[in-house]
Amino acid sequence: MTTATSRSAVPARAGRKRRDASTEQALLLATDNLLTEKGNIDFSLAEVGARAGLSTALVQYYFGSKHGLLAALLEWSSSRYVSQINGLLAMELSAPEKLQIHLRALVKTYLKTPYIDRLLHHLISSSDDAEAQRISDFYVKRVVEFYRHLIDQGVREGHFRPVDPLHLYFILLGTADHLAARRRLLASALGAADLDMDFVGVFSAALNDMMLNGLRKI
């Protein structure tokens, strides 16, 4: 999920050296696959190298450490979602229309990268204050600010009532994270191998309806 996102907004990677983009991509994809399969962030650099068909030394060369690899993965896996948020703000659409687009993208993002919240919490808790702040600014602060702008626009248009954007953050991202974390259980209960795009469409539409009813100006 790579986009032209400013790399200065996220934690600097250790040991910036001459890199081959395809090798870096392969290592990030291997890490993404491992975390998605495991459902946690308990893995070794040797597992990443083996999954990518590359040596552990290359993982260390490109990212410096497991922490460096995880910081790079957060940027890589969330950059399209963050870019979509920035793009929505500039679109000539009503607040309800932006909310609908955003919720579908949110559900798709969390089902595709179900580890993202655990990764975020791990990086913030294991980083020094300055790095933790950069991580928070890159992801958490941007999302909360997006909700602030969205709510303000909806209030101006007469669609929404004033709501604390932080409440919206916890409600929506908490829902998406719970769905992603329980995807195998839910898929089994639904008699499916996994939650497919039909489910994404139906669920995001239901979530949109509930949010619009909750936000609607009375």
Write the layout of secondary structure elements.
Layout: H1 21-38, H2 45-52, H3 56-63, H4 66-90, H5 95-112, H6 116-126, H7 129-157, H8 165-181, H9 183-189, H10 197-215
What does this structure look like?
There is one protein chain. This protein has helices at 21-38, 45-52, 56-63, 66-90, 95-112, 116-126, 129-157, 165-181, 183-189, 197-215. With 218 residues, it is an all-alpha fold. Mean pLDDT is 83; it is low at 1-16.
Distance between the termini: 39 Å
CATH level-3 fold name of the largest domain: Tetracycline Repressor, domain 2
Number of helices: 10
Provide the residue-averaged pLDDT. 83
Full CATH superfamily name of the largest domain = Tetracycline Repressor, domain 2
How many separate structural domains? 2
The number of strands is 0
Please name the CATH architecture of the largest domain. Orthogonal Bundle
Major β-sheet annotation: none
